[in-house]
Amino acid sequence: MTKILGISAFYHDSAAAIIIDGKIIAAAQEERFSRKKHDPKYPYNAIEFVLNFAKVKLSEIDHIVFFEKPFLKFERILETYVAMAPRGFLQFSKAMPSWLREKLFQKKMLFNLLKKNDINFNEISKISFSEHHLSHAASAFFPSPFEEAIVLTADGVGEWATTTVAVGKKNSLKIKKEIHFPHSLGLLYSAFTYYTGFKVNSGEYKLMGLAPYGDPKYIDLIQKNLIHIKDDGSFRLNQDYFNYTTGLSMTNKKFHNLFGQNPRDSKKDKITQFHMDIASSIQKVTEDIMIKICRSLRKEFNIPNLCLAGGVALNCVANGKILKEKIFENIWIQPAAGDAGGSLGAALAFWYLELNKDREVTNKDRMNGSYLGPSFGNEEIKNKLNNLGAKFEILEEDVLIEKTADDLSKGNAVGWFQGRMEFGPRALGGRSILGDPRSSIMQKNLNLKVKYRESFRPFAPSILRDNVNDWFELNEDSPYMLLVANIKKEKQKQMTEDEKKLFGIEKLNIKRSEIPAVTHVDYSARIQTVSSDTNKKYYDLIKKFKDKTNCPVIVNTSFNVRGEPIVNTPEDAFNCFMGTELDNLVIGNCYLIKKYQNPALKKDYTKNFELD
Amino acid sequence: MDFIKEFFEFLKIRKKYWLLPIIFVLVIFGGLIILSQGSAIAPFIYTIF
Question: Which end of chain A is more exposed for a tag (fewer CB within 10 A), N or C?
């Protein structure tokens, strides 16, 4: 048996993954263990978990693969500074010490850190390095259900590449073309994330969520000044407007003058219609670029399947547009499309490309529904809850599902903790907060009383796969919540003339469909289709909810509060339950009701986490 | 030693020998900065400049 450990770390979203004989066994992000969102540190806990899950010691691992090449990254950083000198000295002087002290000697550093996991690990030659975008591409193609596919990856930046196109065929994966730093679609989106006052590398979702409230009135300004887009979708950014190559911010004075305002200060400035229009404009530009690239790739390679990965592939609105345009017959997106997924990709790339192993293709992907994290048995959960002083009932599964569906139909917010934790940023029914989508106040309530986040942010629906086409303009699998589609016309509620006159966030209070809690202001929704073969318990719950309400949809949002990583253990779940206004908690077969808990166990939970 | 070998190999494959003088200067200055952070020889480094 060949055991390969993949690691991504030291930038953001550290993670570890283990594959044995090419089969994905386990994967998890470090943030879930350390409780620090996007934790970039060496993923000690994630490595411990994947090794324990696979029941192997580190010294028994055959190959350890890091997801990017530090020398190549160092080359890019040096060359950029040389090209820009003397500008950028401040950034240079901040970056260099950590490179000269440790990052450049990453092999040795990794070796020493790995020894903390297993003192008997002593073969440094087992450590090798993949390329950042090759890792992304491998994570998108090798687990996909396609024998042959175009693989498009796009993110901020890896070593040099920011966007790559590869062709995957059976067990081979060849990168055909690349766009290099500083020209980056991910960094362009991040520049606008910064400009609208959100945190770079985590606030991009918020910008995407804000976009439907605005008008894309700045498209021309962006395309005339900031970016030159060619017919094939390749692009160049005008560096006169950006500061990320030489400064400590994303945008510069010229950029701010172009749009007529300084960047929003999230501590004191409110989000205005201007920021919504900016969000809408950059979202549209991003979608147009992705669609152009896809069209030209379809024409050039004539391959009907597309795989996507890299941070930009988490832009589910753009993904939905690519699908809607019907450029490719099939699309598969890696659920851990960000850097965390690089750990899995690095391991898979080594297995197929270095060891040249055969790849078997079936009509199902090989991600196990992305349920690759830790799980807890009922006995373990019971003991942990007892230790915490929780009051709970243990129920048979059918009673548990019946009660939970009943709670949901009454408008309760339910914490749902079942089976293995998800790998990737989305909660998919393993560590989720659930609600009734028919309720017109659910979105506001969940945002403000449970998640403690901005009221404009939308929630996603989980829907039975068999019913997706009855409710949404979609008839494909979307198991990883990475596709956005509109609610069917007949389920929509059209706005009155007075309602149409409302601007931005005011529109949030209008009931826009039969399932308002998951209907964004533009009638779109980020859909998760649920099948019984990937998550039976979750499927059964939604089915029971449908039996009671005739609605096969429930609200599914990640089990955490703003700024907190998704809960990992029963303790995390109980703390979040007691720290928020969740009504019920269902962990394994244990069923908890808030009003029966000891009020002394309530904590001021939100202060534990820095807002993102 | 392995590191130096691997780094030279990298420069050779990438045909980036022109980076060498920059790296050399960086390593010298970087070394001085690291050494000067609270070490016993810090006062002497200060006097060199």
Answer: N
Which residues of chain A are within 8 Å of residue B19 when distances are taken between CB atoms? Answer: 75, 78-79
Any residues with CB less than 8 A from the CB of A572 and at least 6 apart, and which? Answer: A35
> Which residues, in sequence order, are CB contacts of A128 under 8 Å at separation 6+?
A63, A64, A65, A66, A350, A354
Domain that holds residue B40: 17-49
Reported as a single tens digit per residue, the pLDDT across A17-76 is 999 999 999 999 999 999 999 999 999 999 999 999 999 999 999 999 999 999 999 999
Residue A87's pLDDT is: 87
A244-281: pLDDT as tens digits: 998 888 999 999 999 999 999 999 999 999 999 999 99
CA angle A269, A275, A276 (to 5 degrees): 130
Q: Is residue B28 part of a domain?
A: yes
Which of B6, B10, B30 is facing A96, going by the closest CB pair?
B30
> Complex ipTM above 0.95?
no
Over residues A513-531, the mean pLDDT reads 93
The verdict on B9 touching A (C-beta cutoff 8 Å) is no
Is B22 in Cβ contact with A78 (below 8 Å)?
yes
Inter-helix orientation angle A106-117/A44-54, to 10°: 60
Whether B9 is covered by a domain: the verdict is no
Q: Which residues of B touch A72 (CB under 8 A)?
A: 10, 14
Q: Please write the tens of the pLDDT for every residue from A428-440.
A: 999 999 999 999 8
B28 inside 8 A of chain A by CB: no
* B2 in a structural domain: no
From B25, which residue of chain A is nearest by alpha-carbon distance?
A100
Q: Which residues sit opposite A584 in a β-bridge?
A: A414, A593
- Residue B41 belongs to some domain of the structure: yes
Nearest CA in chain A to B35: A101
Question: Which residues does chain A have within 8 Å of residue B28's beta carbon, measured at their own beta carbons?
Answer: none
A378-608 CATH choice from 3.90.870.20, 3.90.1150.10, 3.30.240.20, 3.40.50.740: 3.90.870.20
Angle at the Cα of B39 from the Cα atoms of B33 and B43, rounded to 5 degrees: 80
- How many domains in chain B? 1
Q: Do B26 and A100 touch (CB under 8 A)?
A: yes
pLDDT in the model for residue B38? 62
Per-domain residue ranges for chain A? 378-608
Contact B26 A101 (CB under 8 A): no
Instruction: Dig out the tokens for A570 from the structure.
Output: 């029963």
Which pair of tokens denotes residue A401?
């599902």
The answer to whether A108 faces chain B, any CB pair under 8 Å, is yes
